[in-house]
């Protein structure tokens, strides 16, 4: 049987794969597991209606605005209450807000109902442990195993309560306001909210800091989340920046845990360039621990070269922001992220936070009186070629000596001016061949040569 948890919680087609029954059972299982490992943080919680219940475990529950979130929120809250856990509903908020509020309310765990950048029909459920941290595999496996158990159901006054938290958004805004040192007065920003969870909070947070804010795609109706907008569809933001003569544009996804940017000329500034901007900013302030930036293996070699020239070491992880967070926590590092725009700043949050990222980008612009294009210019992106090769056994092919030797030969040909990344797909029987080189022609030629070797080995 396939593992229920994926790389970022449990996802599926809402009401078909991710049903209310599954959501209720999953929430109840999580309640049992977190109640077992709770250190009693919930008994000292600072949140809504503390007088109602001061000894039961607590869970913060948030969601993005997609229509199925209403149904799944009800199921999750029912599952929590049925196992004696109080559900603190914080409404429609970004994923990083749930992480923050889990810590701020001193809850035992948090639940976010969202499928992030996925299309509207999908949805997902992800959990945060006490303090707002993503779960490791061991805890996820315990939750999944507990779904088959018979729960002890409390009765009477021991049944959990569902409590609304009307101050949740304001708490998160105050947290964001403390994350930057500079005012943003004089900067004009266009914000694409993807008709998602940041539609209210992102414009307010940027305006709080002094920016002149122009919003697009900030009218969620439950059906239009991520629809041809947001961080996966940047063309409308590019056009809006040029139309309004703005200093920059910022694009979020449906749950606002990522941020990509557009400079004043309409050029996209991806996660690699954003990481470079923020890493040099923190380094200049003496706040980049051990002068280390954490990135995944998918970050462009141009980022590595730029950081090396700036005296910053790049430590790489597997693909996925959870692996970035694990490395950040392991080394006590100050900054990490992905090319896709998931940026994590442990000093200000436990997970990727798109609004925080946008604030930090603009703070660097304000502090240096620089255009975003000039700041992003620190990274020269090397041409990249990616070829997916379908095979019968992706792991066997990737580990074959013939393929490994072909990679060694390709790396020798590229030298210091390029790199090879060959890895099995996480979801399909594919081997992904990625090559970066000084020219597009060389990248393509080396990638095609490697792909031919992979195809032959997998035949």
Indicate the topology.
Layout: E1 10-13, H1 20-37, E2 58-63, H2 68-81, E3 86-92, H3 95-104, E4 109-113, E5 122-129, E6 133-134, H4 137-146, E7 162-164, H5 168-177, E8 188-192, H6 201-208, E9 212-216, H7 235-244, E10 248-252, E11 259-263, E12 268-269, H8 271-284, E13 292-296, H9 301-309, E14 313-317, H10 321-331, E15 336-337, E16 343-344, H11 354-368, H12 372-376, E17 384-390, H13 394-399, H14 401-414, E18 419-424, E19 430-436, H15 440-458
Parallel strand pairs: 2-3, 2-4, 3-7, 8-9, 8-10, 13-14, 13-15
Antiparallel strand pairs: 1-5, 4-5, 5-6, 10-11, 11-12, 15-16, 17-19, 18-19
Helix pairs in contact: 1-2, 1-4, 3-5, 5-6, 8-11, 14-15
Give structural notes.
By secondary structure, the chain is α/β, with parallel strands linked by helices. It has three domains: 10-168, Alpha-D-Glucose-1,6-Bisphosphate, subunit A, domain 3 (Alpha-D-Glucose-1,6-Bisphosphate, Chain A, domain 3), CATH 3.40.120.10; 179-376, Alpha-D-Glucose-1,6-Bisphosphate, subunit A, domain 3 (Alpha-D-Glucose-1,6-Bisphosphate, Chain A, domain 3, 3-Layer(aba) Sandwich), CATH 3.40.120; 384-458, TATA-Binding Protein (2-Layer Sandwich). It is 38% helix and 20% strand. The protein contains 15 helices and 19 strands. The chain has helices at residues 20-37, 68-81, 95-104, 137-146, 168-177, 201-208, 235-244, 271-284, 301-309, 321-331, 354-368, 372-376, 394-399, 401-414, 440-458, and strands spanning 10-13, 58-63, 86-92, 109-113, 122-129, 133-134, 162-164, 188-192, 212-216, 248-252, 259-263, 268-269, 292-296, 313-317, 336-337, 343-344, 384-390, 419-424, 430-436. Strands 1, 2, 3, 4, 5, 6 and 7 form a seven-stranded mixed beta sheet that branches. The chain has a five-stranded mixed beta sheet with strand order 9-8-10-11-12, sandwiched between helices. A four-stranded mixed beta sheet has the order 14-13-15-16, with helices on both faces. Helix 3 (95-104) packs across helix 5 (168-177) and helix 14 (401-414) runs antiparallel to helix 15 (440-458). The longest helix is centred in the C-terminal third of the chain and has 19 residues, at 440-458. The radius of gyration is 23 Å and the shape is globular. The two termini are 28 Å apart. The model is unreliable at 39-45 (pLDDT under 50). Its EC number is 5.4.2.10. Catalyzes the conversion of glucosamine-6-phosphate to glucosamine-1-phosphate. Mg(2+) binds at residues 116, 253, 255, 257. One of its GO terms (biological process) is peptidoglycan biosynthetic process. The modification Phosphoserine is found at residue 116.
């Amino acid at each position: 049987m396939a593992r229920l948890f994926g790389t970022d919680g449990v996802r599926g087609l809402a009401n078909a794969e991710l049903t209310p029954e599954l959501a209720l059972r999953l929430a109840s299982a999580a309640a049992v597991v977190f109640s077992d490992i709770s250190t009693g943080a919930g008994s000292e919680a600072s949140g809504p209606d503390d007088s109602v219940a001061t000894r039961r475990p607590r869970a913060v529950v948030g969601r993005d605005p997609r229509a199925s979130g209403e149904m799944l929120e009800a199921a999750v809250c029912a599952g929590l209450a049925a196992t004696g856990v109080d559900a603190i509903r914080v409404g429609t908020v970004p994923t990083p807000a749930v992480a923050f509020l889990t810590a701020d309310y001193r809850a035992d765990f948090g639940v976010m109902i969202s499928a992030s950048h996925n299309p509207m029909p999908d949805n997902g459920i992800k959990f945060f442990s006490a303090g707002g941290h993503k779960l490791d595999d061991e805890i996820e496996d315990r939750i999944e195993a507990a779904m088959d158990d018979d729960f002890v159901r409390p009765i009477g006054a021991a049944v959990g309560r569902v409590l609304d938290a009307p101050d949740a958004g304001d708490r998160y805004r105050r947290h964001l306001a403390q994350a930057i040192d500079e005012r943003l007065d004089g900067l004009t920003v266009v914000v694409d909210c993807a008709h998602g969870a940041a539609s209210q909070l992102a414009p307010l947070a940027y305006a709080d800091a002094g920016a002149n804010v122009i919003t697009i795609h900030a009218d969620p109706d439950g059906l239009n989340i991520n629809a041809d907008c947001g961080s996966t569809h940047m063309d409308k933001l590019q056009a809006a920046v040029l139309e309004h003569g703005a200093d920059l544009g910022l694009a979020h996804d449906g749950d606002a845990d990522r941020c990509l940017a557009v400079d004043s000329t309409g050029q996209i500034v991806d996660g690699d360039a954003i990481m470079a901007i923020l890493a040099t900013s923190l380094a200049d302030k003496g706040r980049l621990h051990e002068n280390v930036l954490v990135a995944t293996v998918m970050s462009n070699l141009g980022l590595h070269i730029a950081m090396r020239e700036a005296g910053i070491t790049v430590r790489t992880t597997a693909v996925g922001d959870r692996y970035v967070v694990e490395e950040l926590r392991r080394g006590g590092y100050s900054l990490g992220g992905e090319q896709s725009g998931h940026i994590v700043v442990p000093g200000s949050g436990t997970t990727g936070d798109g609004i925080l990222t946008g604030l930090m980008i603009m703070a660097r612009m304000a502090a240096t009186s620089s255009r975003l294009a000039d700041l992003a210019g620190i990274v020269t992106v090397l041409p990249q070629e990616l070829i997916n090769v379908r095979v019968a056994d992706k792991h066997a092919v990737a580990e074959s000596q013939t393929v490994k030797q072909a990679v060694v030969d390709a790396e020798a040909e590229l030298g210091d001016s390029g790199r090879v990344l060959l890895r099995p797909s996480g979801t399909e029987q594919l081997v992904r061949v990625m090559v970066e080189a000084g020219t597009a022609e060389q990248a393509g030629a080396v990638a095609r040569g490697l792909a031919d070797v992979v195809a032959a080995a997998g035949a």
